[in-house]
Design brief:
Elements: H1 3-13, E1 18-24, H2 30-43, E2 48-51, H3 62-73, H4 78-91, E3 96-100, H5 102-108, H6 110-120, E4 124-127, H7 132-135, H8 139-145, E5 149-154, H9 160-169, E6 174-177, H10 193-201, E7 208-211, H11 217-224, E8 229-232, H12 234-242, H13 249-261
Parallel strand pairs: 1-2, 1-8, 2-3, 3-4, 4-5, 5-6, 6-7, 7-8
């Protein structure tokens, strides 16, 4: 069992969903990112998603787009992020998933990337713009050869065929995009989210994590009742943006993440009187 699957198994035993925070690697710089990773661990993260900054992040909204720009301007590279993850994994067993576009990986080469990612302690990779049928040619085999979980996306518009393809290609978990469009904080969850998650879950053997637009403890609690994991990204990245240069940046992110992490616990059924 991979480290990622072990986390979901433990969370299931504890009657809760996994808390999966996201941060853009290198935002505002790699040193601060390393401190933020440690803060997320202390806040109760079960798995951490680290975004690889890319110049054309088509699946991301303005908050994460600006984070990618800040990271690139600070000189962040894929190699720098892998080094940061390696340092993180020397002191923490919290799994790391790289959230990337395919271009940086393609330039490096799938096999070389997979070996380097494994050596750095990366547990899983999600390529936003790489569909499973294309990934099966080189990318997914390279990850599996190196012992890295492959994670793919589903959305409210995914057909039965796409769900089947993703189910066959994903090993760590499946990431369900809670709504159409790009990432970003939303005031409320999609009206049909519970129905859509139920539709997808019954066709999967892997754990299902839900992300995109989840930003408050109340929203985390609602999603935790229907999914195996809850991903929060833009809400935390926005704090990094607002607190950029503030000495309280790391502690503020940790406090916010801790309040989100506390919301993943589901209510346990009450015991009958005399039971």
């Amino acid at each position: 069992m991979s480290g990622i699957r072990a986390v979901f198994a433990r969370c299931k035993e504890e009657n809760r969903a996994a808390f999966i925070p996201y941060l853009t690697g290198g935002d505002p710089d790699l040193e601060t990112s390393a401190n933020l990773l440690a803060a997320l661990v202390d806040a109760g993260a079960d798995i951490i998603e680290v975004g690889v900054p890319f110049s054309d992040p088509i699946a991301d909204g303005p908050v994460i787009q600006r984070a990618a720009t800040r990271a690139l301007e600070s000189g962040t590279t894929l190699s720098g992020i892998l080094d940061m993850v390696a340092r993180h994994r020397r002191s923490s067993d919290v799994p790391v998933v790289l959230f990337s576009y395919f271009n940086p990986i393609f330039v490096r080469g799938a096999d070389e990337f997979a070996v380097q990612a494994a050596d750095s302690g990366v547990d899983g990779v999600l390529c936003v713009d790489l569909p499973p049928n294309e990934a099966s040619k080189e990318f997914t085999p390279a990850l599996r050869k190196s012992g890295i979980d492959s994670i793919f996306l589903l959305s409210p518009t995914s057909s039965r065929d796409r769900i089947k393809q993703v189910a066959a290609a994903s090993t760590g978990f499946v990431y369900y995009v809670s709504r159409t469009g790009v990432t970003g904080v939303q005031s409320q969850l999609a009206a049909d989210l519970r129905r859509d998650v139920k539709r997808v879950r019954r066709r999967l053997e892997q754990p299902l994590a839900v992300g995109f637009g989840i930003s408050t403890p109340a929203q985390v609690a609602a999603v935790a009742k229907m999914a195996d994991g809850v991903v929060v990204g833009s809400a935390l990245v926005r704090i990094v943006e607002e607190k950029h240069g503030d000495p309280d940046l790391v502690s503020t992110v940790q406090t916010a993440a801790a309040s989100l992490a506390a919301a993943v616990y589901r209510r346990r059924p009450r015991r009958a009187v005399g039971g």
